[in-house]
Amino acid sequence: MESGVNAKITPERSLTLLSSKEVNRLKDKSEGGLYGLFRRCSLAVLNCGNESDDSKAILAAHAQFDIKVVQQPRGIKLEVSNAPVSAFVDDVMIKGIKEHLFAVLRDIVYANTVLKKSTNFNLERSEDITDFIFHILRNAEILIPGRTPDIVVCWGGHSISRFEYDYTKEVGHQLGLRDLNVCTGCGPGAMKGPMKGAAIAHAKQRIISGRYIGITEPGIIAAESPNPIVNELTIMPDIEKRLEAFVRVGHGIIVFPGGAGTAEEILYILGVLLHPANKDMPFPLIFTGSKRNESYFQMIDEFIAKTLGDAARQRYKIIIDEPRRVAEEIKAGIEEVRKYRRYHSDAYYFNWLLHIDPIFQKPFKPTHNNMRNLQLHRNQEDYLLASNLRCAFSGIVAGNVKAEGILAVEQNGPFEIRGEQEIIAPLEELLNAFVRENRMKLPGEKYVPSYRIVD
């Protein structure tokens, strides 16, 4: 490995001033301090382009990396030591990476020293969680009033083949030609492809205000470092707030092939839409891939049919190998969203009317005990089953790529997943297919399952 770079960086767009108390919390290496969180997220941003999805291995490979906040009378600077060489050109940090680095600082300071300390937020209450998310997004300038709905959330795997990546790029291109903007989880693969395609289309249409929004969280950011096309980055405190941010900011969702993380996202949005309070709300949701992915979406559709039933299947369309039609359908769906929001006097920039049950907002900690006790049975509402299935996939993602989850599996063995056979059998079938198709890790890496199915 090349020796790291030492540098001092001055902010340009985000957060030029910090209080002494905020600086001290960023320096604090104790459990209550923010140093560890800030260092991990900063390293992930600086490690852009270096392909590895093992958060624990990335942290170990850059054990000498350090970052400090330097407070000066005219503002702040960041001082990095042994930073990844790839983040610099001629010893000067790449501008986009620099913007992402200060976005990390902005969001960590705001969420952990402003919002969490405020008596206005009780994060045990559903409406306060939504308000908390709104404030983070507003502070990051993600929410822009006065714009008609135009944000398409794109979900899909970071570990995908070249032909799958090219298809995501073509769909993004068709979206961009229609003046639509893209929001993804900000990483590589199916998160980067739509942004790249949209960026080229925006250039063709002479659109200079194209938005490529990346929404991430501390547990996943190292495995999915922000790709260089992202021009609006925000870090939510956990995966549940990240998912809620997606569905409240976006006006429609496109899902490309992926693995456990994509399955988690699918189950989240279906669970939300299956709640009776959202029965009549328009929310365009399209699953799409190339002709070679047709069997993949048949498999996803069968899994949903066997577990959640036909009511869930009515909430999405599957479109195979037709990028133009995908863009046309999602644009038409977004027009219905615009009419609905206008009729109900809801904001275009944040979906306040969408009901999200507290079960989808409560952070799920993927411990062995919590994974073992998931309620995977028929005797519950469909949206509750979707929530429990979502948690199962969330735990598998943690065991695959998140440092904390990897360590837990190394120390105590695979997570155990158990439940009724009519739920567990299709779940195991889907997971086995993900393993066979190399959707659990980046290509070339041997996958050792982080889970085992228990009858």
Automatic annotation (TrEMBL):
Its protein name is AMP nucleosidase
Q: Which Gene3D superfamilies match?
A: 3.40.50.450, MoCo carrier protein-like
Query: What is the scientific name of the source organism?
Result: Oleiphilus messinensis
Naming one, the record's GO cellular component terms include:
cytosol
Residue ranges of domain Pyrimidine/purine nucleotide 5'-monophosphate nucleosidase C-terminal in the record: 334-454
Q: Which domain of life is it from?
A: Bacteria
Checking SUPFAM superfamilies in the record gives:
MCP/YpsA-like (SSF102405)
Among InterPro entries, the record links this protein to: LOG_fam (IPR031100), LOG_family_nucleotidases (IPR052341), PpnN (IPR049788), PpnN-like_sf (IPR037153), PpnN_C (IPR021826), PpnN_N (IPR027820)
Task: Report which reactions are catalysed by this protein.
Answer: AMP + H2O = D-ribose 5-phosphate + adenine
